[in-house]
């Protein structure tokens, strides 16, 4: 790597700045590093255009990664710009799912190794690029509820949001189609999740087995009804075992359509401004080169699930 553009959040606090310095010292041993702190999408777009020959490293969380990937897509540079991530966010769900070290200095060493992996992305019918995952239903309600707690409580805010949504969820009646196959038709569902990556909410494995380098999407549809089953779903969700319940369908594919009652969508941790009645998602295989650890180094996949965790 001859040149690295390191993009940081202009509003990063003192702790994040100190962590960034530790990571920066690692990268500067091997490369010429230019640091830019961006404050909005327009600023980000300008910085990327001015450094169009550099590898890009994002120092931030899932929202920062999402913003940079979409900016690169807008500039048609996804296939020509190696991308690294130094996790400095609250949730860091993409990093957790793919095994990027949460310690900034160790994450920088991963980038310094120079090893990249072809990484899948998702594009929805509005043109939005999804790096990690999208979901609707109870998960979206949890994220909406957590918005008021997250600034003060961090990851605990996600848990409070999940409890609130599980106690009084608003089910949506939708049809879910994956590669032309109807998973559910006009059924009331608690949750639909479309995963490139597996984690949400600061470490909850919402979509077990989702891997952004395996060339397929994982889709989870939950029909959990009744207060006991809903709380069972939430409890299993915290352990990554919810997909083994008999009310939960898990399938894979590359083209997903959800349509029906109005629903909000959470994309890479950010909720949509308005509800919609139809959304589609398409997988773009190997659309981006990212500095990721070898799969053998990533712990915690679906292999640990056993029949003992499933409902008869």
UniProtKB/TrEMBL annotation:
Q: Which InterPro entries match?
A: ATP-NAD_kinase_N (IPR017438), Diacylglycerol/lipid_kinase (IPR005218), Diacylglycerol_kinase_cat_dom (IPR001206), Lipid_Phosphate_FormReg (IPR050187), NAD/diacylglycerol_kinase_sf (IPR016064), YegS/DAGK_C (IPR045540)
What residue range is the signal peptide?
A: none
Pfam families membership: DAGK_cat (PF00781), YegS_C (PF19279)
| Molecular function GO terms recorded | ATP binding; kinase activity; metal ion binding
Entries under Gene3D superfamilies matching the protein: 2.60.200.40, Probable inorganic polyphosphate/atp-NAD kinase, domain 1 (3.40.50.10330)
Q: Which GO terms describe its biological process?
A: phospholipid biosynthetic process
GO cellular component terms, semicolon-separated: plasma membrane
Which SUPFAM superfamilies did the record assign? NAD kinase/diacylglycerol kinase-like (SSF111331)
Q: Which residues form the DAGKc domain?
A: 1-128
What does this protein need as cofactor?
A: Mg(2+)
User: At the top level of its lineage, which domain of life is listed?
Assistant: Bacteria
Q: Which UniProt keywords apply?
A: ATP-binding, Kinase, Lipid biosynthesis, Lipid metabolism, Magnesium, Metal-binding, Nucleotide-binding, Phospholipid biosynthesis, Phospholipid metabolism, Transferase
Query: What family is this?
Result: Belongs to the diacylglycerol/lipid kinase family.
Q: What is this protein called?
A: Transcription regulator [contains diacylglycerol kinase catalytic domain]
Which organism was this protein described from? Answer: uncultured Nocardioidaceae bacterium
